[in-house]
Design brief:
With 229 residues, this protein is α/β, with parallel strands linked by helices. The protein is 48% helix and 12% strand. It contains 9 helices and 7 strands, in the order ββααααβαβαβααβαβ. It is elongated and about 60 Å long.
C-alpha cells in the first residue's frame, strides 16, 4: 500500500554511542568550567539543555541551532558569567564532530538494515529521512549514515537545522511531501505515504497534521519489523 516511507532518525534508526556523550562532557568539564562544576553536573546540564531545546522546538516549530545549544551549556556550566566572545565556535564544532566520529552512533536494531533493504527492493517505493537535529548538525548526520552504510537506502534526507523548522511543524512535513513529489515526478495519495518515528508528538502528531499515515515504533515496544507485515 505504501509507496513512500519517511523515517525519523534518532531512536528510530540510530542511537547515540554512550562514549560520545561521556567524552563530550569531559571536554566541556575541562575546557569551559571556570566554576569548578563536577563532571556529573556537566552531564546533567547537557541533558537539561537537550530536553529544553527539544521542547521549545516542538512547541514553536522552529529550530535552535547546535551552536546555540552548546553556548547554553557553556553558560549554565559557568553560572551565566562567561563572555561568549571568548569562545571559538568553529574550533568547538570541529572538536565535537571529531569526538562523534571517534564514538559513532550505532544502528538502533539489528533488524534495521534488513527492513530498509526489503522496503527499498519493493517496486515503486521511495524512502527518506525527516529528522529534528540537536547538538549534531544535519551535514554531520549525512556523514554518519555514510559510515553506517545506511545512506544508499534513502532517496533524500531532510534535517531541521537545514530548513529552520522542526517536527511537528506542519510546514516541515509539507516540505517532505514536496520533495516526494519532486523526486517521484508526481504526487502520491496521503494514504500511500507513511512517516515512522519514536516520538508521539513530533512524529505522529506531525504526520497527522498533513493527513499522512504514521507508525510509532521503539518507544512503545513496537518494532521496525512491523513495516514488513
Amino acid at each position: 500500500m505504501y509507496r513512500h516511507y519517511s523515517f525519523d532518525l534518532w531512536l528510530t534508526l540510530i542511537k547515540s554511542n554512550p562514549g560520545f556523550k561521556q567524552e563530550r562532557a569531559c571536554y566541556f568539564h575541562k575546557q569551559y568550567n571556570s566554576k569548578g562544576k563536577s563532571l556529573e553536573e556537566v552531564v546533567r546540564i547537557f541533558r537539561e539543555v537537550d530536553l529544553l531545546c527539544n521542547a521549545i522546538n516542538e512547541k514553536t516549530g522552529g529550530n535552535i541551532t547546535a551552536e546555540e545549544m552548546y553556548l547554553m551549556v557553556i553558560s549554565k556550566i559557568n553560572d551565566h558569567t562567561l563572555s561568549f566572545q571568548e569562545i571559538d565556535l568553529i574550533e568547538l564544532m570541529t572538536k565535537m564532530e571529531e569526538l562523534l566520529f571517534a564514538h559513532l552512533p550505532v544502528v538502533y536494531s539489528m533488524d534495521t538494515p534488513g527492513v530498509l533493504s526489503q522496503l527499498k527492493s519493493r517496486e515503486d517505493v521511495t524512502i527518506s529521512i525527516l529528522s529534528n537535529t540537536g547538538f549534531i548538525k544535519g551535514k554531520t548526520l549525512r556523514k554518519v549514515l555514510d559510515y553506517l552504510e545506511l545512506s544508499p537506502f534513502f532517496d533524500f534526507q531532510l534535517y531541521s537545522d537545514e530548513l529552520g523548522m522542526s517536527k511537528p511543524n506542519k510546514a516541515f512535513f509539507e516540505q517532505l511531501i514536496q520533495q516526494v513529489t519532486t523526486h517521484r515526478k508526481g504526487s502520491l495519495k496521503p494514504g500511500n505515504v507513511i512517516h515512522v518515528g519514536d516520538n508521539p508528538i513530533a512524529d505522529i502528531e506531525g504526520a497527522k497534521s498533513i493527513g499522512i499515515e504514521s507508525l510509532l515504533i521503539n518507544s512503545n515496544n513496537v518494532s521496525i519489523l512491523t513495516l514488513l507485515n
